[in-house]
Amino acid sequence: MIVIGASAGAVEALSHILPALPADFPYAVLIVVHIPSDPRSHLASLFAGRCNLRVKEAEDKEPLSPGTIYFAPSDYHLLAESDYRLSLSSDEPVRYSRPSIDVLFESAADAFGDDLTGLILTGSNSDGAKGLRAICDAGGIALVQTPDTADAHEMPLAALKACPGARSLSLSEIPAALNSLHSR
């Protein structure tokens, strides 16, 4: 499984990464983007026509399906469960965010340990740093967008500080890194 967190500048960053994943990509990809608490997010529909993989908004208790990109819905935390299902929570915001990147990353680290890759992209707060640390501690792979290639560098900087062993990659290098997971 791959978990991705992004905030300010997310659409542009994800537009470089998600369409580059091949149709036979064998992993589920769970994404949290800080979005306003509108009744409906348009991220899944925005990316559905651009990607080789199935793209959808996550639903509560939905089974994970390889080769599918799941976006956290507006105003819900997205969690990964050890029974290969997703769950949604309306618990309090974390660092002013619901959905929270830390909530997704920590739940995925607990559920999948070293079978997990976490990626922090552009953003202007520290959400995701603690979660990426949990992925590192569980033996997973930690990737971070190089701060100077991010629209907002605060989130990548916080992630690198929390997880010094994370691999820092430019936006143009990230698709190849994710595809190399597929070729292993």
From TrEMBL:
Keywords: Chemotaxis, Hydrolase. Its EC number is 3.1.1.61. It is an enzyme of class 3 (hydrolase). Residues 1-184 form the CheB-type methylesterase domain. SUPFAM superfamilies: Methylesterase CheB, C-terminal domain (SSF52738). The active site is at S7, H34, D127. The keyword Calcium does not apply. The keyword Membrane does not apply. One of its GO terms (biological process) is chemotaxis. GO terms for cellular component: cytoplasm. It catalyses: [protein]-L-glutamate 5-O-methyl ester + H2O = L-glutamyl-[protein] + methanol + H(+). One of its GO terms (molecular function) is protein-glutamate methylesterase activity. This is protein-glutamate methylesterase. It comes from Luteolibacter yonseiensis. The lineage of its organism: Bacteria, Pseudomonadati, Verrucomicrobiota, Verrucomicrobiia, Verrucomicrobiales.
